[in-house]
Amino acid sequence: MRVASNVYQMQWLASIQRKQAELAAIQQQTSTGKRVSTAADDPAGAAQALLLQQGLDRLTNFKSNADTANRRLSLEEVALSQGSDALNRVRELAIQAANATQTRDSRSAMVAEVRELLTGLLDTANAQDGQGNYLFAGNQVQSRPFAPGTPVQYNGDSGIRSQRIGDTRTVQEGDPGSAVFMQVPAGNGTYTVTDNSSNQGNAYWTSASVSNASAWVADTYSLSFTAADSWEVRNSSGSLVGSGSYSSGQSIAFAGVSIGFEGTPVAGDQFVVAQSGFQSVFKTVQDFLTTLDVDTGSPAGRAAFQNRLNSNLTNIDQSLQHFGNIQSQVGARLATIERQQSSNADMSLDLSQSISVIRDLDYASAISRLEQQLNSLEAAQKAYTRTRSLSLFDIL
Question: What pLDDT is recorded for position 355?
Fold first, then answer.
């Protein structure tokens, strides 16, 4: 069978075009640094790289979430520290107010400072995160959570916002204001002691502790002095719980609790011992302002002042402990975020390296192949040129 010369030429041209295409592909790879730019370059590798990239993108989202949670928790930590500073100053003023040399008039300067501290505490509770969102509003982040007044009103909710920072890890990015500022255990956390406003003696309580928690029965008890040297305690049903003699500086014990007293009561003076409830930090400070206005011109007035001041100090200590507990929780969350971010960073590096192995070009190998393709194409072009110029007359 005879083969025409133009058939040879077409075959040579097709071969040269293939080599040019291969050369162009290698040149593109060397210019971009990518071995796999499209799925056609390596279908299996491209599919694997896509899965790895999805994992890398997910880690990027986790990092963004972690950064958000870290920022808000760090700001919450600062706010709690500021709140603790304000309460510590209120406590210092309360201790100063207890000095016997202080009078109702001399305490008026304290009132002005405490009011400023209360305003600052309210501003702290209404702190924002720098993006216009309130830290302590629960899920109502666009609404100012605390409104001034007596009492201070909370307008947020008890929602808890969380961020997902890992495949199996979520972290609470803040605490609602209801939990931070409005639900502080009153008294010593187990019970409160309150004097009767009609007491005539000069007795006041000095300490309130739990000596036997298992013996404590949550109830409202009436501690009455039946005489200057005797007392009795009845529960809410009127049943006698305990009784005994009294002298100044003595502790009265019943139902697993012990309450220290100073001063001399008169028959009929009463104190109410009730199970601890919850009250706001703002009420604690407002109660201290009210105490500072008590008239201490009489023995009974000084006793009433001391009773209420002791209640104020106990509640302030509870608020400080409450803030400290929340700060510990915030610190634990920040540590969790740090550990998770470190783990995510290691995983991200591994994924990036795996993607690089699949997609990135081995320059040494590519340059070697490029040189081979150039030499092969040059040889093919020369051979084609010589073949194309052949003629029977040249041979004859």
Answer: 64
Q: How far apart are CA 186 and CA 47, in angstroms?
A: 62
Residues of the domain holding 268: 190-275
Predicted confidence (pLDDT) per residue in 285-308, tens digit: 999 999 999 988 899 999 999 999
Q: How far is CA 176 from the centre of its chain?
A: 10
Alpha carbon of residue 93 to chain centroid: 31
Token pair for residue 357? 């192995």
Q: What amino acid occupies position 290? A: T
Question: Which residues are CB-contacts of 177 (< 8 A; sequence separation ≥ 6)?
Answer: 125, 136, 137, 138, 145, 146, 154, 156
Let me know whether 156 and 178 are in one domain: yes
Asked if the structure places residue 59 within a domain, the reply is: no
Cβ contacts of residue 10 below 8 Å, gap of 6+?
none
Collect all residues with Cβ–Cβ distance below 8 Å to 251 and sequence separation of at least 6: 207, 258, 259, 260, 261
